[in-house]
Every structure is written in structure tokens, then in C-alpha cells.
Amino acid sequence: MRSYGFTDTLAAKHYATALRADIRDGLTRTPKSTAPTWFYDARGSELFEQITQLDEYPVWRAELGLFLLHADDIAVRTRARSLVELGSGSSNKTQLILEALGPAGLHYVPIDVSADALHQAGAQLAKDHPGIVIHAVRADFTAPLVLPELPDDGPRLIAFIGSTLSNFRRPARGPFLRGLRDMMRPEDFLLIGADLVKPVPEMLAAYDDGKGVTAAFDKNLLHVLNRELDADFDPDSFDHVAVWNSAEQHIEMRLRSRVEQRVKIRDLDLVVHFERGEEWVTESSAKFSTDALQAELSAAGLRTDQLWADEDAGFALMLTIRSTD
Ligand code: TRP
């Protein structure tokens, strides 16, 4: 039996409305700053997969290493029969958890903004694991989530891995975690993968690799805006830069305008002015200490059931459950 269902909650109109609102708001404020959601068209998702394989980007391998060691523990502790994954992308690493949980009859809900990524990963998973039931959902998980109907036959595991949590800025992170917690029943688990603070040069290299893949990923945003909003960004007139913001404890990816310029965004009826050297924050990526993250989780009503950390690689996996408050 092969089972793949797909729900699109990002109807063209919804996507366009959210994109327009964020870009208008983000490019008319000082400093300019937009949401990372818009990177991930088909090309952006593909470039992101390439980033995960770069020598400079240790996050992916560190988390994979922890999954190789602990996927069985996760399965034994949770006994989950449904796995919901936020920002599933290629679902690559998740396979280790699926296999440990036992894919036959398991309900897997990959959630991503990229329909292409969902279809590709879904086709592969259905082929490799006959018996798995896939309900792919195209959604922007920064907005309130509606899950598909799932059987009530055991605990659910929500996986939020790849340090994707780090792409939420601090004020938004609390309410977001609280929202996830409120979706959970008392028997459910939330698994978080988080990148830890490391020496600054290592952290910077992970967001500015020698081959320029991360730069191409960052500039892909300009191609998305040109296509989706009929804008006239010239990607060659921007440089990609990565900066460590120590007050916020996050890396910022920025696009720096090489010249003074005006860019037309026709669909917004907007002309955006850039000074020469002006920087626009396209993404932030928080780095955590396990203590600080546990404090944030606890403030959101989540308590750590188990923590696995790879101190050398600077990465932690936290399996959490609802606390009573
Ligand atoms: N959330 C991960 C991180 O911040 C993965 C990621 C998202 C990423 N966007 C990225 C990595 C851009 C490199 C570049 O590390």
C-alpha cells in the first residue's frame, strides 16, 4: 500500500498576501529586514540542500550523528505512531526516526512551504517504506497550524529539527513555542534540534562558505521577489554578508547594496531606496546554550524529558513534553 496525501493551505492568494505584507513592511523599515520564509521556492530548497552538505556547515552532520546514536531511544521513549515535522524539506535525516518508530502504519505529516520539496520527499519515502501513511501539508508554519485528522492511537511526536527554531527572532520564539505546546496532548512529545554557541569564526563560516552556495541561497530571495512581485532587483548589485550579533546571540545573513540604488517592486507599487553599503537582514539564526534554551522552553510550558548533546560539534537534541502549567 502506498499512501501520499497532500493539502495546500498556501493557496496562491494566501501566499501572495503574506509575501506582499512582509516585503512591504520589511523593506520600508530601518534597518530593512524580511522573513526567511521566501527563500524556499524550488531553487531555494535545492540550494539549501547543498548548504547542508558543505564542509563549513556542521549543523547537518552534527544532528545526523545524534540521530544515528539516539533514534532508537527517541522511539522507545515516545512510542509515537504519528510524526509531525515542521520545515521537513527533503525529509532526509527524519528517515532515521521513521525507521526507528517503525514505518508500517506510521502517520507522517511533513509540513513545508515548498510543494516541490514535499512531493519529492513524499514520493521517495512512499517508495522506500511501503505502509507509511503520508499527509503532506504545504503551510507557512509561522502562522497558526491546522493539522490533518490523525488517528488517536498513541502519542504524537512533533519534530522541529535542523535548528529551524533558530530562524525565529527572540520576541516571536516564545509565542511560537507556546502555540506548539498548546497543540500537544499530555502524551505527546516535541523534539527540538538546536545549534549551540561556538567560536565566532566557525559560526560565520557556516553562513558564508567558500563556494558561494550560501550567497546564492541568500540572493535567491531577489529572484523570488523579481518573479513573484514583478520587481527589478539586480542580484549582482548586492553582496552576501554574515555577521555575528552578540547582543542577540544570532548570526545575521544580510544583503549589502554595492551601490546607491532604487528598486521598483511593481506589484507593491513601491520604490525602495538603498544607500551604498546599506544592509538588509534576510535571516537571523540564533545560537543557543542548553540552559538558555531550556529556560525558553520552560517559559513556554515545555519541560525537557531528555537532552542529548554533542559538545564537540556544538549541537543539542531536546525531547520535551508539556509541563503542567
Ligand atoms: N536553521 C538552520 C540554521 O540557521 C538552517 C538554515 C536556514 C540555514 N537558513 C539557512 C543555514 C541559511 C545556512 C544558511 O543554521
UniProtKB/TrEMBL annotation:
InterPro entries: EgtD, EgtD_Methyltrsf_superfamily, MeTrfase_dom, MeTrfase_EgtD-like, SAM-dependent_MTases_sf. Its EC number is 2.1.1.44. It comes from the Bacteria. The keyword Cell cycle does not apply. Keywords: Methyltransferase, Transferase. GO terms for molecular function: L-histidine N(alpha)-methyltransferase activity. Residues 20-319 form the Histidine-specific methyltransferase SAM-dependent domain. It is an enzyme of class 2 (transferase). Pfam families: Methyltransf_33. GO terms for biological process: methylation. The keyword Transcription does not apply. NCBIfam families: egtD_ergothio. This is L-histidine N(Alpha)-methyltransferase. It comes from Streptacidiphilus alkalitolerans. The gene is egtD.
